[in-house]
Amino acid sequence: MQTAADIMDSTAPSVSPGADAREAIELLAKTDKGAIPVIDGDGRVVGIVSESDLILSEEQADLHLPHYIDIMGGIVFIGSMKGFEERLNKAFATKVSDLMTADPTTVKVDDDVETVARTIAEKHHNHLPVVDGEGHLAGLVTRADALAALIDA
């Protein structure tokens, strides 16, 4: 029975949350994986940056200020500013932490291929970081890797 360790790319590049966003974009352009794991100083997976993280949806691209009312010279925003701030940070991301999806779904090195494929299908992901028992990055597995392994089985 093949495991995630058997089908993963153990040479997949990674970046740190504090790295310049341009570094992640350049790595994505150079790799054919479509995603870059984000690791902390101890090598633990804390996020992932995928090609889809670089695309602002039509809704996110709307950077107009939220609706507000002017009461006696003071501006009161109707609704939350948090969503606006998140869209603004992503649109003008300078650090990987602004782009990444935090706490990504991962699989363990000893998970069997069926478990990897099921996780990819259930979570609707194309890329999963593979971690060891302590959460350290071991590699990256793609939907294509899992499907190829299932076909060969």
Total strands: 8
- Helix count, DSSP H or I runs of 4 or more residues: 7
Distance between the first and last residues' Cα = 8 Å
Going by CATH, what is the homologous superfamily? Answer: CBS-domain
Computed Rg: 19 Å
Mind describing the biggest β-sheet?
A: 3 strands, antiparallel
Q: Give the mean pLDDT.
A: 83
Order of helices and strands: HHEEHEEHHEEHEEH
Q: Can you tell me the overall shape?
A: elongated
User: Which fold name corresponds to the CATH topology?
Assistant: CBS-domain
Contiguous runs where pLDDT drops below 50 for at least 5 residues: 57-65
- Assigned CATH class: Alpha Beta
Measured as a percent range, the helix fraction is 25-40%
- Helix/strand structural class: alpha+beta
CATH architecture: Roll
Describe the structure.
With 153 residues, the chain is an alpha+beta fold. It has one domain (4-56, 92-152): CBS-domain, CATH 3.10.580.10. 35% of the residues lie in helices and 22% in strands. It has seven helices and eight strands. It has helices at residues 4-7, 21-30, 58-61, 82-91, 96-99, 113-123, 143-152; strands at 35-39, 45-50, 68-71, 74-77, 101-102, 107-108, 127-131, 137-142. The strands form three sheets. The chain has a three-stranded antiparallel beta sheet with strand order 1-2-5. The chain has a three-stranded mixed beta sheet with strand order 6-7-8. Strands 3-4 form a two-stranded antiparallel ribbon. Helix 6 (113-123) crosses helix 7 (143-152). It is elongated, with a radius of gyration of 19 Å.
